[in-house]
Amino acid sequence: MTDRPATPRSRRERPAKPALSREAIVAAAVAILRAEGLQKVTMRRLAQQLDTGPASLYVYVRNTAELHAAVLDELLGTVGPAPAEGTWRERLEGVLTAYTAMLFEHPSLARSALTARPSGPHYLDLIETLLALLDEGGVPPAQAAWGVDLLLQHTTATAAEHAAGEASEEDWDALRRAVHGASERTRPHIAALAGPLLAGAPQDRLSWGLRTLIAGIEQAPRPRETR
Asked: In 5-137, which ranges are E strands?
């Protein structure tokens, strides 16, 4: 005598799937990013993760670009507030360094961040923090408004350029050979500065660049707007 096959469970008896929401979608996208990289954060992969159809996601997220911007905004929540100690310049550099470090942890996101347009609460918190520190330093509002954009462009590009694994050692070796092999006759300036051109750890170059930009933002008047 054989056992009777188990009766299939009715769909009504299965646990109900959690209701979709933008928050749940973004959380799932961040989980995929951490495990598989940004290239896997697609509507199709996300739908698979959430056990739904891709069409259902478009109710909450218009396209992949908006999804990636939302992922970036979510991770901006890990940057944290400005340090409590130090001058306003040092604390401003600290916030921007923390932002860059977050991008260093996600190389694919660093490049996407160059064109992403986040508009969520964490992005707004970051902008507010930067503006408050510039205001504390007495930077005129017009310079501060444009200066924030310049500072974030620099830090984002730095992360995209130096993020781990983005360039092979062969690429760097080829660049070193080209710079150090420059002719003193045809490229005298490169030949004279071959060492300094490639010297310095990424962190040191980032710090120098930020201090240079902050000093410039303090002094340079913003161009008068034309109508």
From this structure: none
